[in-house]
Amino acid sequence: MAYQPELIGGHVALDLLNTISWRLDPSRTIDRIATPEALAIWCAAVGLSGSDGQLERVVAVREVVYGAVLPIAREMKAGDLAELQRPLVGALERATPTGARPLDWVGADLVDELVMAAGRLVEREDLGRLRECQDSGCGWLFLDRSKNGSRRWCSSGDCGNRARARRHYQRLHPGTGVLS
Ligand SMILES: [Zn+2]
């Protein structure tokens, strides 16, 4: 089946990070944009273009963004923003201003767009709402836009369902190990 990106991050920079599934469980980790075709599908899904020949750079910048953002999600402490700063400065140098409001910049290419999206994430979003899915292997990140800020799972139909099934199983079979 063709790749169908799940855009649950609430921000394109987070959806970029979430192109890796099961990041925290190396036995299951899958890079969903491992081919140029998959990258093109993901780009179309988030409204970006120009992915030809960019796969390696996108993958590299994805890890830079992850290094900057993960510590914020885990402990509200900025990660390696210096690593992000360098590509961000370059992207802004090459960018052109949008002519209409909201005023912003248009990146020179796909990677610049992604880098600037990460910049917007750390500058403009309410990072108190940045969360990491509570499934131990998932590793997906999202902005919790729920009213009471209580979202715990990337997707309640996915990781949330598994957690519910586990609790249910343990209630029925007390004293048994954890279902995985
Ligand atoms: Zn999850």
UniProtKB/TrEMBL annotation:
Upper taxonomic lineage: Bacteria, Bacillati, Actinomycetota, Actinomycetes, Propionibacteriales
UniProt organism field: Kribbella ginsengisoli
Domain of life: Bacteria
Protein name (database record): CGNR zinc finger domain-containing protein
Gene3D superfamilies: Jann2411-like domain (1.10.3300.10)
Residue ranges occupied by any Zinc finger CGNR domain in the UniProt entry: 129-171
Residues annotated as signal peptide: none
